[in-house]
Each structure stands twice: as C-alpha cells, then as structure tokens.
C-alpha cells in the first residue's frame, strides 16, 4: 500500500503572504495542527504549525514579573506566514510504502507529512490515516488484498487470502 492510497487529498493550504492571524483562525476553526504553504504552481514552500503561530506571540504578563521596569526586549512577531513557516519540511513521495511512512513517523516523532508527486503537493498523510488502515475490518482487508493481488498478478481465483486480527496470510491455490 502506498501513501497515495491512504493520504488526505483535500489538505488546507495557504500562500506565503497570508497573515499569521488568518492561519491561527484556520487552525482553530478547522481543528488542524498545521497548514501547508504553497506557491501558485502548488509546489510546497513550507508548513505552519500551531507552535510556529504561538512562537513570540504570548508575551509575559508584566504584573507577574519581579521588576516592573524590566524590558522584554523582543521585536514584534512577524505578521505574514513567510516569517513564521518552517521551510525545511519532511515530505514523502506519493508512491512511498506506508510501512516506511509509519517507521518515519515513529523514528522522527512526526504527526504528519506532506505528500508530493513530481515536486508538487498532492496531499498530506497523518498518523490518523495510517491508523485507519490498521483498524479496518478483517473482511474488508481480505477483499482489498485479494483484489490487489489478482489485479497485479493477472491471475483471478489463484490466490487464497485469510485475515485474522489484521494479520494476512496469502497462499497460491
């Protein structure tokens, strides 16, 4: 199974000149943890996470400081996405094996990754997308596997597929 088989195709994207406040509203109302930043040709430029939006925007309460005359000394936070986005984004190819994507998520502690095909953004894959494949009913998994095997081999009726607790066994008849 490949990333394109389980990814979400309708990911939320913004332009690099979108305001950070607008992104905060998108994240809040949509329940997203991040949005992707793309150019006019839908090439991935970066990602803006909740942490990127928060960074530098929550100033200390002066009433709680030991000395009220202390200066925070911080510059105002950027107002556009291009000033807060993470440009070095870990992506996966649309043809990536979901087992490799799962390993990447675990090893690098990622929650999601943009999916690209030929350098263009085609979707996003998340832990939740991977969990959906694990949680599928055994009979549905069996039917899907059998269909894939028969279409790949061109030998309908030649394969026996059994699935129990999500573990598949495939044998030639």
Can you walk through the features of this model?
The protein has six helices and eight strands; from the N terminus they run H-E-H-E-E-H-E-H-E-E-H-H-E-E. It has 173 residues and is of the alpha/beta class. The protein folds into two domains: 3-58 and 77-134, CBS-domain (Roll), CATH 3.10.580; 138-172. The longest helix is centred in the C-terminal third of the chain and has 16 residues, at 138-153. It is elongated and about 75 Å long.
Quick structural summary:
This protein is α/β, with parallel strands linked by helices. The protein has helices at residues 3-6, 20-30, 50-54, 98-108, 127-134, 138-153, and strands at residues 13-14, 34-38, 44-49, 92-93, 112-117, 120-126, 159-164, 167-172.
Q: Helical region count?
A: 6
Indicate the low-confidence ranges by residue numbers. none
CATH superfamily of the largest domain: CBS-domain
How far apart, in Å, are the first and last alpha carbons? 23 Å
Broad structural category:
alpha/beta
The CATH topology assignment of the largest domain is CBS-domain
User: What CATH architecture of the largest domain would you give?
Assistant: Roll
Radius of gyration: 22 Å
């Amino acid at each position: 199974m490949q990333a394109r088989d389980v990814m979400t195709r309708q990911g939320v994207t913004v332009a690099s000149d979108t305001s950070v406040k607008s992104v905060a509203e998108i994240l809040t109302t949509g329940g997203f943890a991040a949005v992707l930043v793309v150019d006019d040709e839908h090439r991935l430029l970066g990602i803006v996470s909740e942490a990127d939006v928060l960074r530098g925007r929550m100033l200390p309460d002066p009433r709680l400081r030991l000395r009220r005359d202390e200066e925070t000394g911080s510059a105002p936070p950027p107002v556009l996405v291009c000033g807060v986005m993470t440009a070095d984004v870990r992506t996966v190819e649309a043809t990536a094996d979901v087992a490799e994507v799962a390993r990447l998520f675990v090893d690098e502690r990622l929650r999601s990754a943009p999916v690209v095909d030929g350098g263009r953004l085609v979707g996003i894959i998340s832990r939740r997308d991977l969990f959906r494949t694990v949680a599928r009913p055994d009979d549905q998994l069996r039917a899907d596997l059998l269909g894939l095997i028969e279409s790949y081999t061109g030998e309908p009726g030649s394969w026996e597929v059994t699935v129990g607790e999500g573990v598949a066994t495939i044998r030639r008849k």
